[in-house]
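Example record used in the benchmark description.
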Amino acid sequence: MKPHPSFKLRALAWVLAGLAMPAAHAALFEDDEARRAILDLRQKVERQRGEIQQVGGEIQQIQRSLLDQQNQFEKLSAEIARLRGEKEQLSQELRQQQDAAKTSSQSIEERLRKFEPTKVVVDGSEFFAEPSEIRFFEDSLAFFRKGEFVAASASFGDFIRRHPSSGYGPTALFWLGNAQYANRDYKEAIRNFNMLLSKSPEHPRAPETMLSIANCQLELKDLKSARKTLDEVMKTYPQSEAASAARERLARLK
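Model output (C-alpha cells):
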C-alpha cells in the first residue's frame, strides 16, 4: 500500500522545519544579545548622563559659590575703600586740628611771652625784666640818645619810681644823672650819682659816675669838693680810664 501524497508533503515540511529550527534559534539568540547590549549601553549612557548632570549640578553649585564669593569680595573691597576714605578724611581732619592747635599754641606762647620776664644783660649785669619794663627803659634811653634831655630826665625818673627794685636801677640812675647834667640840674645830678654809688659801688659805671660828680661840682664852682672827688676816683678806681681822666683834670686845677 502506497503512502498518500499529502502525507509525503507534510513529512517533507516537517523535515524542512526541523532543518530551519537551528538557524531560527540562532537568529533569535543573536537578537537577544544585541538587545541586552543595547540595554546595557543605554543604562551606561543613562548613568553617564546622570553623572554628567550631577557633575553639572556640582559645577553650577561651585559657580554659584564662586559668584557669591566674588560678590562678597567686591562688597569687602568696597567696604575697605570706604574705610580707607574715612581714614584719609580723619587723618586730614586730625592734621588740620593739629595744625590749628599748633598755631593756637604758638599764638598763646607769643602772647604769654609778651608778659613773661626776659633775661637781659645791661652794663655787665644779668637779670630778668618784664617786657613792659624793658620797653620803658629803652624808650627813656631813646630820649637821651636823641638829645631830648628834659624828656629823658622825666622818663628815667618815672622809671625809677615805678621799678625801684629793677635790675635796670643803677644804669637808670646813671642816665638820669647825665640827663640832669645836660639840663644843668647839677645838684639833682649829684644826688642821683651818689645814689648809684651807694647802691652799687662795684657797678661798671661807678668810676665814670664819680668822675661825673666831680664835673657837676666844677660846674657849681665847688673846686674844693671837685678836687676831693677827683682824688677819690684815683684812689678807689686806680686802674680805670676815669682815674686817668681825673688825674689830668686835677693837674689842671692845680
